[in-house]
């Protein structure tokens, strides 16, 4: 199964064979499995296996990356790009050792206890503190892709609206519909088009997609287009109308409207956030 969230799986007892994007690997006590969003993974216990799994919303993790590197990043979209480059491995087995894994158990037990009641608001600070304690132990073992970050990448944060997330198993049809849209953002995607891609009825594909990603396919497509617009506004001098057409909007007004709805500012304002005082105006204003 694949989930639209990051999973941290701590092996508490026993052993198993994992089948995932890293191939077939054994896991035992002292191992932590780290799975990126939308990564397929299955397991076959060897006798028995006991695990505790932490489900982490990707938006929540991107926010943590932003604040960790706030002095180097322009905004939350920059943080998303940095996170995808730093943590490019979709699936990892962290061999932290039985002693370190044992030190996690009291925190994991308390996380489980706090999760059962589902009164997350009342326990938010404690839950976050427990997660940070776990992350502090496993963090040094996470494989990171080396990269250089320019110190000139500085600006303000524009967080996006958080998503509702149920952490249900991700159906293959939802993932294929998402990949189809990512593969051709400029296409005029309709529910009928996506239904043909995944071989479901339009009503079914809408329901499956909403269950998986918390958004309608059209809303998700708009989000993807705005993210690409933001990248092009930062990295090119193309006119706003041209960028809008490249990501799939036929008119400049529609591109501006969608961008403002998602980010709270216009494309021109967003571009100006990255212009230094001594820079000359770009040709794409």
UniProtKB/TrEMBL annotation:
GO molecular function: DNA-binding transcription factor activity; sequence-specific DNA binding
SMART domains referenced in this protein's UniProt entry, alphabetically: HTH_ARAC (SM00342)
Keywords attached to this entry: DNA-binding, Transcription, Transcription regulation
Domain HTH araC/xylS-type: 175-273
Gene3D superfamilies named in the record: Homeodomain-like
Source superkingdom: Bacteria
SUPFAM superfamilies, A to Z: Homeodomain-like
Annotated Pfam families: HTH_18
Protein name as it appears in the record: Helix-turn-helix transcriptional regulator
Taxonomic lineage of the native organism: Bacteria, Bacillati, Actinomycetota, Actinomycetes, Micrococcales
